[in-house]
Amino acid sequence: MALRSHQLLTENYNVPEEDIMFDPLVFPAGTGDQNYIGSAAETIEGVRLIKETLPRTKTILGISNVSFGLPAAGREVFNSVFLYHCVQAGLDMAIVNSELLQRYNSIPEYERTLAENLIWYRGDDPVAAFADHFRDKAPKTSAKTAKACHLINGCLWPSLKEAKKA
Questions:
Q1: In total, how many domains does the chain have?
Q2: Dihedral of the CA atoms 102, 108, 110, 114 (nearest 10)?
Q3: For residue 114, is it within any domain?
Q4: pLDDT tens-digit map of 87-124
């Protein structure tokens, strides 16, 4: 699909390659839905293939979709590990709440392994192993998140409402 889109955009509409962005989409990896097993790894591979085949185009992903359904503390870790691997594959841009990310190297090795097992669906039941580990843990960024929510609800949201009325 990317090749055909690229051809149409560059040949029929004269869009410069550098102005084309592809979103290979990401599905929730932690729901246990058979349709989505391995989809995180497929998304990473999709990014790699797009960058290999069409290196002058850009890639973009909404990162947090991949962790839908996982415990909150686990989402922070999973999103961070997933983003790391996407960037290694060539991802150019990400839609992400940066306050909810952790540096890959600061994540404990065991937790990185749990996340990577879920990405590549390794082991007997990587969804259960990941969820069990994080189920009773508190998110590490809860104070930052609360502050961000306060700013949105207390300051920005009324401004947006007023702008909409104008």
A1: 1
A2: 0
A3: yes
A4: 999 999 999 988 888 999 999 999 999 999 999 999 99
Cα–Cα distance between 15 and 104 in angstroms, integer?
36
**Domain annotation covers residue 13:** yes
**Structural domain span for residue 49:** 2-139
Is 50 among the domain residues? yes
- Which residue do the tokens 């990185």 mark? 112
pTM of the complete model: 0.83
Within-domain flag for 152? no
What is the strand order of the sheet 58-62 is part of?
21-22, 58-62, 93-95
- Residue 87, domain CATH: 3.20.20.20
Using CA atoms, how far residue 160 sits from 15, 19, 26, in Å, is 33, 30, 29
**Strands in the chain per DSSP E:** 21-22, 58-62, 93-95
Point out the residues of the chain with pLDDT beneath 50: 143-166
DSSP line for 89-117: HT--EEE--GGG---GGGS-HHHHHHHHH
